[in-house]
């Protein structure tokens, strides 16, 4: 035992006096926060390579002219002219849809909401994330209970999430296709959804109806994702807290309000952050169900202008989309910090 201790001390002494001595001493003098950042350095470098570099390249590309940049020659440096044209509507004539809605001086101060790619994207993001969070929270509460057949219920909830977007889009497209879909009727024989006034008889040709159905389809698929994340957070809660609450006479609502909700809130906010980022980039479900001509989104503008090819305009829309997503992420991070999460 003494021999092993001496050999260990000798090895430690050799490391301190060897070629790496200065590095070892430097790391030992770091604080816990500094050492944590040191361990994160490789991940940050990798993130910079796969995320920051493409973003910087996109911004650089947006500063050069394409066929739509006024009198400038193709490939000529034009600075922020592409951004000015995008926000003033000078590019709308060549885009599948307008970037911004038309602003007025009367309430609700905007018109042509459904013809604006930005407004359609924001409407989709707000309503899809809201309902996915609520439904996913309810599913997680159910799955967190101990009942017979819980494993099969979990599998049933996960199935929609496992369906590829293209297949999901075709399923919903066929369900609401006139003369084919069983959920859509005709003018002479309207279905229940038509009678309730939720959709018309040709919903996939109308922007408002198509957007409504796309939101429903996305909620059907992705609420399972929210449920799994929230369920993971719920199962990490110490069950003894509920036992103490029961002994104290707390009702189920009081247990939920005082224990479950505060402890699960950080997980819910992280799940909402993931879904918000993904929803802002919506493209696949739109293209497979109704098409970008019917339901424009920011990603639709990026793809259509890139295929034109209008690389300067495409890069401009892509960078603006990334900036909006960064703003949303900043709001979430600010809420995390203000709540001490």
From TrEMBL:
Family to which this protein belongs: Belongs to the binding-protein-dependent transport system permease family.
Domain ABC transmembrane type-1: 118-338
Gene3D superfamilies: MetI-like
Protein name stated in the entry: ABC transporter permease subunit
Alphabetic keyword roster: Cell membrane, Membrane, Transmembrane, Transmembrane helix, Transport
GO biological process: transmembrane transport
Example of a GO cellular component annotation carried by this entry: plasma membrane
UniProt cross-references to InterPro entries, sorted A to Z: MetI-like, MetI-like_sf
Chief location: membrane
Cell location: Cell membrane
PANTHER family for this protein: BLR7065 PROTEIN, SPERMIDINE_PUTRESCINE TRANSPORT SYSTEM PERMEASE PROTEIN
Bilayer topology term: Multi-pass membrane protein
Membrane-spanning parts: 35-56, 117-143, 155-175, 211-234, 255-274, 311-334
């Amino acid at each position: 035992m003494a021999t092993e201790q001496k050999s260990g001390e000798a090895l430690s002494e050799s490391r301190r006096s060897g070629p790496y001595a200065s590095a070892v001493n430097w790391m030992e003098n770091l604080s816990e926060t500094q050492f944590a950042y040191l361990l994160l350095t490789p991940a940050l470098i990798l993130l910079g390579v796969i995320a920051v570099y493409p973003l910087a390249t996109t911004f650089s590309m947006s500063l050069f002219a394409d066929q739509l940049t006024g009198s400038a020659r193709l490939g000529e440096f034009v600075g922020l002219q592409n951004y000015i044209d995008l926000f003033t509507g000078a590019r709308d004539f060549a885009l599948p849809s307008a970037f911004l809605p038309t602003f007025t001086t009367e309430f609700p101060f905007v018109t042509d909401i459904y013809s604006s790619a930005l407004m359609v994207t924001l409407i989709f993001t707000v309503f899809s994330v809201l309902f996915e969070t609520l439904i996913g929270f309810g599913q997680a509460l159910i799955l967190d209970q101990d009942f017979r057949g819980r494993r099969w219920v979990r599998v049933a909830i996960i199935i929609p999430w496992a369906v590829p977007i293209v297949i999901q889009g075709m399923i919903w497209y066929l369900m609401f296709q006139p003369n084919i879909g069983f959920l859509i009727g005709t003018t002479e024989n309207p279905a229940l959804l038509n009678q309730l006034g939720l959709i018309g008889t040709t919903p996939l040709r109308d922007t408002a109806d198509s957007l409504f159905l796309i939101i429903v389809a996305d909620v059907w698929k992705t609420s399972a994702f929210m449920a799994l994340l929230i369920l993971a957070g719920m199962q990490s809660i110490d069950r003894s807290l509920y036992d103490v609450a029961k002994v104290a006479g707390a009702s189920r609502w009081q247990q939920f309000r005082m224990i479950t909700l505060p402890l699960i809130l950080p997980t819910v906010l992280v799940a909402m952050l993931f879904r918000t980022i993904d929803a802002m980039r919506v493209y696949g479900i739109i293209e497979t169900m109704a098409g970008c001509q019917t339901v424009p989104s920011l990603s639709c503008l990026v793809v259509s202008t890139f295929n034109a090819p209008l690389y300067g305009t495409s890069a401009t829309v892509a960078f603006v989309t990334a900036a909006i997503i960064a703003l949303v992420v900043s709001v979430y991070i600010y809420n995390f910090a203000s709540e001490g999460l």
